Amino acid sequence: MLELSGVSVSIAGVPVLRQVSLTVPAGARVALIGRNGAGKTTTLRTLMGLVTATSGKVMIDGEDETRLPPHHRPRHGIGYAPEERRLFGSFTVEDNMLLPAQVLRLPAEETRRRLERVYSLLPELRDLAPRKAAGLSGGQGKMVALGRALMVGTKAVLLDEPFQGLAPALALRYAEALKRLRAALPDVAILITESNPELLRPLVEQTYVIERGEIAAD
User: Fold this and answer.
1) Helices 93-103 and 138-152, packing angle to 10 deg
2) How many C-beta atoms lie closer than 10 Å to residue 182's C-beta?
3) What is the pLDDT of residue 92?
């Protein structure tokens, strides 16, 4: 469903990804493991069109979407939760989650259905819904970013370092949320990046290892 084929990326003339190839089939749970600076975030950003590949192809549902503008990716049913969350602090939690649905101009009934699905998977977000995002803890913000990604991620969800900076108790809650997601939405693919492979071992079926911008193992 998602595929990078021989993708290279340079930023400000510096090579960041070198001939990266990976595949995320429909419904698969895939991990991308690597040290900080190995190229994990750039890989996700390339899939989302936020970074342009200098060579290679980005394939979505078998179509070459390498040059597709980033705002078109959600129309393919792809949700993205960046490491830094990128929430609007003056918006409520619910407004942050509703924003991508509004950008896609989803019908009100469909928007409400998706929001209820998010609340069923992440019940703590229902209690947080009226709070301003600026008042959230880091762990709560990660949950909101996941909920927002699920509002549009009907086919795939990309999660960038979701456990980074979380206290052990919050990391456990996040992992439990991913297990619920896996059980409730078996057709939704997940690509998740992490530095520590042990955190993801119970959650994924396939692992890629990236080192210095190259896939070192599969």
Assistant:
1) 30
2) 15
3) 96
pTM of the complete model: 0.92
**CA 207 to CA 172: how far, in whole Å?**
20
Q: Is the dihedral of CA 188, 119, 163, 176 positive or negative?
A: negative
Report the relative pairing of strands 55-60 and 63-64 from DSSP bridges: antiparallel
pLDDT tens column, 1-31: 899 999 999 999 899 999 999 999 999 999 9
Q: Helices 108-121 and 93-103, interaxial angle, to 10°?
A: 140
| Coil/strand/helix, residue 210 | strand
Q: Which fold has domain 2-217?
A: Rossmann fold (3.40.50)
- The pLDDT of residue 148 is 95
User: If 0-12 CB within 10 Å is exposed, 13-18 middle and 19+ buried, where does residue 130 land?
Assistant: exposed
For residue 2, the Cα-to-chain-centroid distance in whole angstroms is 12
Specify the pLDDT at position 212: 94
Whole-number pLDDT of residue 139: 85
85 DSSP assignment: -
Residue 45: DSSP 8-state: H
| Cα separation values, 107 from 98, 101, 102, 112, 114, Å | 12, 9, 9, 9, 11
| Domains of the chain, residue spans | 2-217
Pairing mode, if any, of strands 189-194 and 29-33? parallel
d(CA 12, CA 95): 35
Name the stretches of the chain with pLDDT < 50.
none
The pLDDT assigned to 74 comes to 83
